[in-house]
Amino acid sequence: MSFRRLVRGSADWPALERVGRELADRYDRDHVRIEFLDADNWLSTPMVLDDDRFVKVITPQNTLVHTLFTTGRNLGAFSAGSEGFFERHETPYEMARHELEATRQVRALGVNTPEPIEALAVGDLGVVVAEYLPEFCTLDELDTDSCRTLAPALFEALSTIHDAGLAHGDLRAENVLVLDGELYVIDATNVSDDGRTDARSYDLASALAALEPLVGATSAVDAALTSYDADALLAARRFLDFVAIRPDHDFDAAKLRGEIEKRATSAPDADRG
User: Are 145 and 127 within one domain?
Assistant: First the structure.
């Protein structure tokens, strides 16, 4: 077994067969067809069940890797002058249940998400089941004009989540799906209640970082200012270097920081500290 597969904790075929049989029984189907998705996912094995349900299978190794990622992210938060706000999960089922509940909370706010169906344990595996969205693309697969048009909707969705006292915690282009001109937000992670103010600033920094290589710093900040004020952008500014060290973000932090500071300077009531 390769090192990358070991770290990812891919479920073996007999375990996946058990999951398939369990889901067939739960949905009163004589048999099910499973299609594995070609996704570079370290925290689950994603698959599609009968073209109508999206399924993630989470192994104990996935949970361990999530713990390691969480530790690294909290160290990054410390480097930005914040207490760590990412929380780990104890078991694969806990990971699955959190994703289900987080999706339900976001969907209840009117933000588009795939419909959450259920979370369950199959042996030592966690399984989360949701609506499958066919023919979607991710935000970073759009052309520049389409991305620029939809960018304000991303910040509108994010501000709706934040205004409800919640945070996403892992916002990146791959976690924003586009279907029929609508945005769908997926894969919220676990953040502490005490750290949600900083987590929301981190979310905003992450959204700006996701958009900057797609539409440029000026357009990204323009879109953010349709839902956030200059003070919020200044609070997000201190997390840009932290986001920049993540391997799943590739953006020009200096350009974003300069654009934020320029806008803050032109806003008389902004905190320029």
Answer: no
- Cα–Cα nearest to 221, from 250, 257, 249: 257
103-157 pLDDT tens trace: 999 999 999 999 999 999 999 999 999 999 988 999 999 999 999 999 999 999 9
Single residue among 107, 131, 155 that ends a domain in this structure? 131
Distances (CA, A) of 220 to 32, 125, 149: 43, 40, 11
Same-domain status, 209 and 256:
yes
Residue 273 in any domain: the answer is no
C-alpha separations of 237 from 6, 98, 220, 229, 260 in Å? 36, 29, 13, 13, 7
Q: Which two tokens stand for residue 60?
A: 């104990």
CA dist., res. 273 & res. 268, Å (int): 13
For 240, the token pair is 């840009």
Instruction: For residue 138, give the 3-state DSSP assignment.
Output: strand
Residues in CB range of 158: below 8 A, 6 or more apart: 168, 171, 203, 204, 207, 227
In a domain, 19, yes or no: yes
| Total number of domains in the chain | 2
The pTM score is: 0.90
Query: Which structural domain range is residue 55 located in?
Result: 3-131
pLDDT tens digits, one per residue of 154-169: 999 999 999 999 999 9
Output the domain CATH number for residue 168: 1.10.510
The per-residue DSSP string of 207-260 comes to: HHHHHHHHH-HHHHHHHHTTTS-HHHHHHHHTTHHHHHTSTT----HHHHHHHH
Q: How many Å apart are CA 90 and CA 264, to the nearest integer? A: 42
